[in-house]
Design brief:
Helix 1 crosses helix 6, helix 5 crosses helix 9 and helix 11 packs across helix 12. Strand 5, helix 4 and strand 6 form a beta-alpha-beta unit. The protein is α/β, with parallel strands linked by helices and about 525 residues long. It has 16 helices and 20 strands.
C-alpha cells in the first residue's frame, strides 16, 4: 500500500483529496495546524484505519517514521480574509513550509506536488493565461504575501528539482468551489450562496464587470491525481475551468438557482490588487493529462447550494455567560455583536446581570439576551446560580447548546461551571482577562474569586487568557478591523465545532493555540 502525505489536509480542497486517496487505496497522513482547516471536513474519515491525522505547522520541520511515496503540499490560507490576517505567517508557510516539505520528500525519496495558484499571474494583461505568462504582480501590495509567496514556493520546487534531484510536480489552481467551503471565508461562491440562502443582499465590490472562472472541486482533484501519476511533465500546469463569467452574471445565476429574494448591491470599494480577470489556458493540461473540467457550473452549484442549505439549516446554539451586557455599549458587548454578525448561522443566548433600565428579555437577530437581577449586592452574587438554572431549563425546552462560553472567571466562568453541573456533557470555553488573574488573593474577596476562578478553569475544555500588558489588549480584540473580526469569527466557528465534537464523543477535540494570537 502506498502512503500519501497531504499538508492542509483538513482544508476545503485538502479534505476532498484525502478522501479520493483513501478511495484509491492509499494510506493517508493528513497534516494540518487548523489555522483555517477544520475537523468538520475530515471527521467522517476518522474511522478509516488507513487515515491518520497529524496536527503540525509545516513552518517547523516534520519527521515521519514510515515510508512516504507521495507528498501533496496544499497547506496555506487561500482566502484574502485568512491570508491577510497574518501576512508574515502566510509568507512563512509558502517559503519555509515548502522548503521543509521538500526536505521531507528528499529524505524519503518521495514525489512532491506543490499546489500553486492562478494568483501567480497577478492582475493579468493577457487572456486567457497560459503557463508561459510570467504575470503582473504587485510585490509590495496587500496580496503579495500570498501571490509572491506562491511564486517563491514554485522557485523552491524547481531549484530543488534541478540542484538536488527531488521529483516534483507543480499545478496552478484557479477558482475552485464545492461542498466544505467555509461560511464567511470571503470567496465569491460561498459569499454569494450564503447571502442568497439567508435572504441578505448579495454584495459585489465594483461594477460587476470583473471576471472569474469556476471549477468544481471533484474536477480539480481528478486533475491533481492525473498530474501526480504521470511522468511526462513536472509543470507548471493550469487546472481550472476556461468558461469565464462576469461577477455580476455569476451573482444572477446564484439568485436564480437559490430562488432568493436577495437583491444584488454594489460597493464602490474594490479590495486592493484584486485581479480584473481570471481565465486559464488549459491546453497543456489537455495534452499532458488528458484532462478538462467535466462538471458544468449549474451542476456544481446545485451540489454546493444543497451543502450550504443543509449547513445553514442545522441550528447551532451557543450559550454565553457574561457579567454585563448592554447592547451597543462596552468592549465585551461589541465583541459578541461582531462575532454574532460574522457567525450569522449560529444562535447565541446571552445570560447576563440585569439593569433597572433594560428589559429582562431582548432579541436582536441571532442574539437573545436574558437578564437577571439588578447587578448589585445579593442579586450580583446570585447571578451565576440563576443564570445556570435558566440556561439549563432553556436547553431542555429549545434544544442542546453546542458549546458554552464563559466570559471572566468569577461570574461568567462560574456560571458556566454551574451549568455543567446541570448538563454534565457540556464543553466550556472560558476567556479570562490577565488583570483578573493578577488581582491579589490575600483579601477575602480576592481569595474567594481565586477559588471560584479555579473551579471554572478546571471545568473548561479550553481557557483563553487575554493579555492586557501591552502585547495584546481587550481593545485590540474587541475593536479590531473588519478583516480581524472576520478571521476571529472563523476561529470561533472552529472552536465551537470542536467543543461540539467533545460533547458528542466524550473526549477532547480542542487542539488549538491561542485564538487571539497571530
Amino acid at each position: 500500500m502506498k502512503t500519501a502525505l497531504v499538508t492542509g489536509g483538513a482544508g476545503f480542497i485538502g479534505s476532498h483529496l484525502c478522501e479520493r486517496l483513501l478511495n484509491d487505496g492509499f494510506r493517508v497522513l493528513c497534516v494540518d495546524n487548523f489555522f483555517v482547516g477544520s475537523e468538520e471536513n475530515i471527521v467522517h474519515l476518522f474511522s478509516n484505519k488507513n487515515f491518520k491525522l497529524i496536527e503540525h505547522n509545516i513552518i517547523e520541520p516534520l519527521d515521519i517514521d514510515e515510508d512516504i511515496n507521495w507528498i501533496f503540499n496544499f497547506a496555506c490560507p487561500a482566502s484574502p480574509v485568512h491570508y491577510q490576517y497574518d501576512p508574515v505567517f502566510t509568507l512563512e508557510t509558502n517559503v519555509i513550509g515548502t522548503k521543509n516539505m521538500l526536505e521531507l520528500a528528499r529524505a524519503h525519496n518521495a514525489r512532491i506536488m506543490q499546489a500553486s495558484t492562478s494568483e501567480v499571474y497577478g492582475d493579468p494583461s493577457v487572456r486567457p493565461q497560459p503557463e508561459t505568462y510570467w504575470g503582473n504582480v504587485n510585490c509590495t501590495g496587500v496580496r503579495a504575501c500570498y501571490d509572491e509567496g506562491k511564486r517563491a514556493a514554485e522557485t523552491l520546487m524547481f531549484d530543488f528539482h534541478r540542484e538536488r534531484g527531488v521529483d516534483v510536480r507543480v499545478i496552478r489552481i484557479f477558482n475552485t468551489y464545492g461542498p466544505r467551503m467555509a461560511v464567511g471565508d470571503g470567496r465569491v461562491v460561498s459569499n454569494f450562496v450564503v447571502a442568497a440562502l439567508q435572504g441578505k443582499p448579495i454584495t459585489i465590490y465594483g461594477d460587476g464587470s470583473y471576471t472569474r472562472s469556476f471549477q468544481y472541486v471533484d474536477d480539480l482533484v481528478d486533475g491533481v491525481m492525473r498530474m501526480m501519476a504521470q511522468e511526462k511533465c513536472i509543470g507548471p500546469v493550469n487546472l481550472g475551468n476556461p468558461h469565464e463569467f462576469t461577477v455580476k452574471n455569476f451573482a444572477e445565476i446564484v439568485q436564480e438557482m437559490t430562488n432568493t429574494s436577495s437583491a444584488i448591491v454594489y460597493r464602490a470599494h474594490v479590495p486592493g490588487d484584486d485581479p480584473k480577470q481570471r481565465q486559464p489556458d488549459i491546453t497543456r493540461a489537455r495534452a499532458t493529462l488528458d484532462w478538462e473540467p467535466k462538471i458544468e457550473v449549474h451542476e456544481g452549484l446545485e451540489k454546493t447550494i444543497a451543502y450550504f442549505r443543509k449547513k445553514i439549516a442545522r441550528e447551532i446554539r451557543v450559550a454565553i455567560f457574561v457579567p454585563s451586557f448592554v447592547a451597543g455599549c462596552g468592549l465585551q458587548e461589541s465583541f459578541v455583536r461582531n462575532m454574532a454578525h460574522e457567525l450569522s448561522d449560529i444562535s447565541f443566548d446571552v445570560y447576563t446581570m440585569g439593569d433597572g433600565n433594560l428589559s429582562a428579555h431582548e432579541k436582536n437577530d441571532n442574539v437573545t439576551i436574558f437578564r437577571f437581577g439588578n447587578g448589585r449586592g445579593v442579586a450580583r452574587l446570585l447571578f451565576p446560580w440563576r443564570a445556570a438554572r435558566a440556561a439549563a431549563a432553556r436547553e431542555r425546552e429549545v434544544g442542546e447548546y453546542q458549546a458554552v462560553w464563559g466570559v471572566m472567571g468569577s461570574y461568567g466562568g462560574f456560571a458556566a461551571r454551574l451549568f455543567k453541573h446541570h448538563v454534565p456533557r457540556t464543553a466550556i470555553f472560558l476567556s479570562l482577562d490577565s488583570n483578573e488573574i493578577k488581582q491579589s488573593a490575600w483579601t477575602p474577596v480576592g481569595f474567594i474569586k481565586k477559588i471560584v476562578r479555579s473551579l471554572a478553569c478546571r471545568a473548561a475544555s479550553y481557557v483563553e487568557v487575554v493579555k492586557t500588558d501591552g502585547s495584546i489588549s481587550l481593545d485590540d480584540i474587541f475593536s479590531g478591523t473588519r478583516d480581524e473580526a472576520s478571521y476571529a469569527g472563523y476561529r470561533f466557528r472552529q472552536l465551537f465545532y470542536r467543543l461540539g465534537l467533545e460533547k458528542e464523543f466524550g473526549r477532547p477535540f480542542v487542539m488549538m493555540k491561542r485564538l487571539f494570537e497571530k
